[in-house]
Design goal:
Chain lengths: ~200, ~475
């Protein structure tokens, strides 16, 4: 018999009688709508990220343009922030992405309880981009922030695209004597623009 | 590799571990300041967990839900695994099945050979530790680079991880500095964690970019979608998986959850329980290989179906590997992960490991005070301390407990069952401690005294006091 067959036979022989699957809906108190944005900002800052509430994307566009005048490789994926770096595509090799200094990406939604944002593959252009860049800038429409992960999973469809990620703050580690160090393998900093306009 | 050779070389747990938990712990606690540091550091993580948990009003409801979802899943596991396989295949993922550790390793070796891969990176996966994949591949001439910082540190030192979430928690920064100086050429004596992490970042970026094949673990596999979720803080699983042409994800059969909505429950529990973070930095949802990439999943049994058939112990398969039970355990904190001589240490390891090999792991269920703190912090409500107690009975019945312990336990049971003898023994004990303290304050006759001070002997027992003072 194949290993699959052996495993399945053993499972059928050994698993207990069917138990009921509980309903994930539970009674709980959700924050006031006005408290959601402040909670997101506070949580994001507590995990090493930076939040800037901004009314107009023009402010972000100006910052991006200014940083482009320097020597660094800036990747923009958003037409409303100016010229888009169309060279960044799915098949691009890691070696070509390694020089990316800052990447600008839009997120689908934010989660107030943990300061994370959901990114679909199409928003990344390349799955490596938010990890391999030295600094990451996320644009998020403030009204998309939900209180907890339960509401987040109601809004997203994880099977829709090939890949997606909840990203919360910059890359970090505490593997050396529990000392927190920001910038392990992924981005060294995370800035989230919360667009209210 | 010949199965017999594999079993002798890499039998899970490690056959080299002829030293019992108590003997290994004795070595660990010889350095008292270091033991205290280890104890306090892990307790600090436990406190962070408490603070995170207190932020969530519905925490207990979440634990109950998670527990019930896992119980249900285990009761319908064959159907969910079948559904997961179908969905994953429809997503373009290749699914492999491995009955044991050797088959798991051979599947990976085969893929490496087929694609003539030279460079492999691996993010944290306790399953691959359990299967001794690294040793196996090295023996076959394949170099695997562990990319989690803690795992890379212990790999360079040719050690095993001592904790499933914090692999290098037994080391001080001076140790890491020395290791990096030797292997990565960092400045001698520079112990700054920031500096050392930066050195590892540069060293491993190179490995990521050049790697052809990436191995990751799986935190949750979703039957409904055929996708899987991998959680890291460092971003190393993603750096590896997205850069390489081939991604192999390894999972035990118990990693299945029925639906995407259940991720909401488990991701709220996992990082809070593990490190006190509200969520890991990256919770990556892999659904399909990217264009031009090959994606494989290896589904492993390695004793899990046997555990499923043990009614008293099956719910240990609910574990989500958060290590909250490690951080709270008074024995783990003061004996260190290596004392457990298995891939998974701590209280949960002590109830999983006897299932794999009763003889080699007969000591582990005794490495506990049965205080129950592990069960209280477990996010999926595994009755860990009850199972530790039940394993003791199974192991004794099966004859895996040393005669000395058995005789001592029988003697103790006899004394405790006979009040007159118990009172006499107490009286004698108090007299000896007062009049001849050298008998008890003696490391040869009294193992209890080895790392502890004896209490002052009271003049009378509580019973005597009570009889005198009651109205």
């Amino acid at each position: 018999m194949s290993s699959r067959g052996k495993i399945m036979t053993a499972i059928k022989a050994n698993q207990p009688a069917l138990l009921q699957l509980p309903d994930v809906q539970m009674e709980r108190q959700l924050p006031e709508p006005s408290a959601i944005l402040p909670q997101f900002v506070k949580t994001l800052e507590s995990i090493g990220g930076k939040a800037v509430v901004i009314n107009d994307v023009a402010g972000i566009r100006d910052t991006l343009e200014q940083s482009r005048n320097g020597q660094q490789y800036i990747v923009n994926t958003l037409p409303y922030l100016g010229t888009v770096n169309t060279e960044v595509i799915s098949g691009m090799h890691a070696g070509s992405l390694e020089p990316v200094f800052t990447a600008y990406i839009e997120a689908t939604l934010g989660v107030a309880e943990n300061g994370s944002v959901w990114l679909y593959e199409h928003q990344l252009k390349n799955r490596l981009l938010p990890f391999i860049c030295q600094h990451l800038v996320i644009c998020l429409h403030a009204h998309t922030i939900v209180p907890t992960m339960h509401e987040a999973y109601e809004k997203i469809d994880i099977a829709r695209e090939g890949y997606g990620v909840f990203l919360a703050g910059p890359s970090k580690t505490a593997d050396i004597e529990q000392s927190l160090v920001i910038g392990a393998h992924g981005a060294r900093s995370l800035l989230v623009y919360l667009i209210t306009g | 590799m010949d199965p017999k050779k594999f079993i002798t070389l890499y039998r899970t747990p490690n056959p080299g571990a002829t030293v019992s938990h108590s003997k290994a712990a004795e070595l660990f606690i010889q350095d008292e300041p270091r033991t205290d540091w280890h104890d306090e550091t892990l307790w600090f993580v436990r406190e962070k967990r408490d603070r995170a948990v207190q932020q969530v009003a519905e925490w207990e409801q979440l634990r109950e839900l998670a527990s019930q979802i896992k119980d249900h899943t285990l009761s319908n596991l064959h159907a969910y695994l079948t559904q997961f396989e179908q969905q994953a295949q429809a997503n373009g993922i290749k699914v492999h099945w491995a009955a044991d550790a050797l088959e798991h390793n051979n599947i990976i070796l085969q893929l490496i050979k087929e694609h003539q891969v030279q460079r492999v990176v691996k993010s944290k996966s306790m399953l691959t530790e359990e299967c001794h994949l690294n040793d196996f591949l090295i023996e076959q001439g394949v170099e695997v680079v562990d990319t989690d910082l803690g795992e890379r540190i212990v790999q360079l030192r040719q050690e095993a991880p001592s904790h499933i979430v914090l692999p290098a928690i037994h080391l001080k920064k001076q140790d890491v500095s020395e290791t990096f100086h030797q292997h990565l050429g960092t400045e001698k004596g520079n112990n700054d964690p920031q500096y050392l992490t930066e050195a590892a970042r540069l060293h491993l970026r190179d490995k990521f970019i050049q790697s052809q094949l990436a191995i990751t673990g799986v935190n949750f596999a979703i039957a409904e979608t055929g996708g899987f979720v991998v959680c890291t803080n460092e971003g190393n699983a993603d750096m590896g998986a997205h850069a390489a042409d081939i991604h192999i994800a390894c999972m035990g059969i118990e990693k299945i959850i029925p639906k995407a909505e259940h991720l909401g429950v488990f991701l709220r529990l996992l990082a809070r329980s593990a490190t006190g973070q509200p969520i890991t930095t990256y919770s990556s949802h892999f659904q399909r290989p990217r264009e031009g990439q090959e994606m494989h999943i290896v589904i492993v049994d390695n004793g899990r179906t046997k555990q499923l058939g043990r009614p008293d112990f099956r719910n240990s398969l609910k574990c989500i590997r958060c290590a909250a039970c490690f951080n709270t355990c008074p024995v783990y904190r003061r004996s260190g992960g290596h004392s457990y001589h298995t891939a998974i240490a701590g209280p949960i390891g002590s109830i999983l490991s006897p299932n794999l090999d009763m003889k080699a792991n007969a000591d582990l269920p005794f490495a506990s005070t049965l205080c129950g703190s592990c069960s209280n912090v477990c996010p999926v409500k595994i009755d860990i301390h009850v199972q530790l107690w039940k394993w003791r009975q199974v192991l004794t019945a099966e004859g895996y407990v040393p005669t000395g312990k058995k005789v001592a336990m029988k003697g103790m049971a006899f004394v405790l069952a006979h009040p007159a003898i118990y009172r006499l023994a107490g009286k004698m004990g108090r007299w000896v401690m007062r009049v001849m303290p050298f008998v008890t304050n003696n490391k040869t006759f009294n193992p209890w005294y080895k790392q502890r001070d004896m209490p002052a002997a009271p003049k009378q027992s509580f019973r005597d006091w009570y009889l005198k003072n009651k109205q």
